[in-house]
């Protein structure tokens, strides 16, 4: 890693690199929130409303694989090829989605884009470590954080307007040319070589093992969703095949994830393992619900796509508020209690959401309720990062941070996968889906309250 003997206090020498990083992260963040807003319109036009959950879950499942591969690949080979590969996959995926004639082609594009996004997000953090001296990194990370907030405010409204008034294809196609300038700004700054096995602590054989684990987990998520999406409506041999898919998916997920996370994570062992697990549980509850809120507002309350997307903007706002609250030094609470409080807020919000699904309840009441729900996410998710570093032994911070990101991606994929599978199995295009939304969010709210109880398992292990 380059050494900086006298790092300047000004960011002026790094503005080109900062602009490249921030622009790429902004485009990835825009893709994530904008597509969720446009997806109801996309699936309606491509005659695939029943498969709406796959549109989001395939992106996140592929992103999971990219996250698993990126860290070790950057350590061993440098950042040049991970970033180049990520850019090619992300750009190609956007192009395929924008030109997709049928929903199956769009899913293939979403998978490519997700894998590229996973590589890029992790590689950008390594680029920051390579290029910027320690004194200015906090300021750089503040720009990175802003890169996620701005698309959350602007993206849903813009994507909804494009989908309703122009074409949803521009939500994907506009990203491709916008990715070229930041790519040109970054490429000269990328390392073409990594450290030795002794320096990185990761051999090429271990990288291959991590790759196989990532493939297994990704395949498991998709297989699980496929099986669940069919088991509810299938009969006879078809039901048996769908049930076998569910079992195989679970086996692949467990087999793929278990070697990549601290021992005891899947069993909620007290301390760090529970913290890592909590990251995925919170991501699954929140993202799995949020991905269907625009569809509910459109189908049950008649909102246009741009107004339905305001719920996603409210989620970003509430998340930011929760993150700010948990950082206040005046709050002298044990850190693990933020899990309990956050999950309780989410549970109450999701149960309250069931009362607003159909008229005469106003769909506009969903927006403040979702802001409140996202406050709980901000409290909890920031606390997972703090506790992970606090519980990590010296030299294990990187490995545990990678496990935290893996849990996040896996939880999001499973959350969207489960809700998407339920929707695929029981969607009723004639009678409406109010009852289905009610059942989905009652189950999610009850599960969140159970997670609140599990939050006490995140207490530190007695010395």
TrEMBL record:
Its main location: membrane. This is MFS transporter. The chain crosses the membrane at residues 21-42, 54-74, 86-106, 112-133, 140-162, 168-188, 209-228, 234-255, 276-296, 308-325, 337-357, 369-391, 403-426, 438-456. Signal peptide: none annotated. PANTHER family: MAJOR FACILITATOR SUPERFAMILY, MULTIDRUG-EFFLUX TRANSPORTER RV1634-RELATED. The lineage of its organism: Bacteria, Bacillati, Actinomycetota, Actinomycetes, Kineosporiales. It is a multi-pass membrane protein. Residues 17-463 form the Major facilitator superfamily (MFS) profile domain. InterPro entries: MFS, MFS_dom, MFS_trans_sf. Pfam families: MFS_1. It is found in: Cell membrane. Keywords: Membrane, Transmembrane, Transmembrane helix. It comes from the Bacteria.
